[in-house]
Amino acid sequence: MEKIHVYHTNDVHSHLEHWPRLHHFIEQERERHLTADEEFFLFDIGDFIDRWHPLTEATMGKENIKLLNELQYDAVTIGNNEGVNLPHDDLNHLYDHAHFDVLSANFYYTNGKYPDWVRPYKIFQTKKGTKLGVIGLTVNFPHLYHLLEWKCTDPVEELKKWIDEVKEQSDVMILLSHLGLSMDEQLAEEFPELDIILGAHTHHVLEKGKLVHDTLLGAAGKFGFYVGHVTLELDQQKTVQNKQAVLYEVESLPAVVNEAEQIDSFFNEGKGLLQNKVTTLNETLETNPFQETVFSRLLCEAVREWCGADCAMINAGLLLGSLSGDVTEYDLLSICPHPINPCVIELTGTELSKIILESMDESLHHREIKGLGFRGTVLGIFVYDQIEIHSDRILVGQKQLEPERTYSLALPDMFTFGHFFKEVLPNKEKKYFLPEFLRDILKWRLKN
């Protein structure tokens, strides 16, 4: 029997506090398997980078790629944090010095051609001649990709296009899927040819994998909490006779020598690179998630002006700290780490009033939010610009709100993804402003 070991990570999101231990463990496992004359492969399933971390922000992810190189990954696929949270040119050069393959079959230039750093699939071969066909797919946000001058296609249709070609060349088929658990389950149903689907995006944890018919699903949660390991056993006819999945909890692994120093060095190197001064403040800009402040009003006004909208609203929980004295790029990252872009939606006066009234719900202000790009804790109260709320009326631009009139409202994009203001926003056309994050708009306002 031939034994093939496939190790995988996903959704690390630049949580490099787990990297030294994870790195050491994988190096040990590689050496152990190769000493036993067993095959070893290592894949990452996307969202390895996240611009909340100063080293990622300062280098636009290039230092993260160095870490992947050092650990000798065989291939990765891109996640949405690579795909839509980097400006076009930064993503286009992110993998310039990668020593691994980037597999993403549904990711193109707008002209329909693959970038020279992308391949739809790769055939890996073991010493015994077994061929592993590995395909990559990433989650499709077509409108956002279009704004960044990329083209992302439907992953199911793309898999249909490539699977026969890969199957003809392979003994084992593996999908690197940054699509989420429900989509992985669907693909396992539709494409029984897939032996393994290594998943990501929804941060799901499959401690011993999950079998859907004869396809084994694996996933390793988020933030480097786990390393995934799939073991395949093949007979002399190169037929898979056994496959098993397991997760290793990184925090339960033995500590690494100088671990704390390594973690601090990642952070401090990034901090050092972000010391460019943005401005000097004569007065402190205070923040409070449950009170409107000069600072929160300043950001809200800046968002409206940047977008050229009639009015704007933001949640005060976006600002995670105060600013005073000399303000650096690192300071802005620290108090506004979210990969959140501004968005404009056109609404009737009636629709706008519904959103404003719903935004005043105190239970909403205290809601703890995870995901959607939000890197804070609680949502906080809503702060408005060019909107005044009185007991008997609402003013927009100092004029009485007119129910039939159309207004443009600027707000953070996290409110447009279907989890908030569900009566009004889901079916409205959205105009997203990319690639600038809210901290970029804050920087623009403070510099001016």
Q: How many individual domains?
A: 2
The main β sheet shows up as: 6 strands, mixed
The strand count comes to: 24
Mean pLDDT: 96
What are the segments in which pLDDT stays under 50 over at least 5 consecutive residues? none
Q: Based on helices, strands and strand pairing, what is the structural class?
A: alpha/beta
From the spread of the alpha carbons, the general shape counts as globular
> What's the level 1 CATH class of the largest domain?
Alpha Beta
Write down the CATH topology of the largest domain: Purple Acid Phosphatase, chain A, domain 2
Beta-strand residue fraction: 25-35%
- The multimeric state of the shown protein is single chain
Between the first and last Cα atoms, what is the distance in angstroms?
68 Å
Rg calc: 24 Å
Give me the number of helical elements. Answer: 14
* CATH superfamily annotation of the largest domain: Metallo-dependent phosphatases
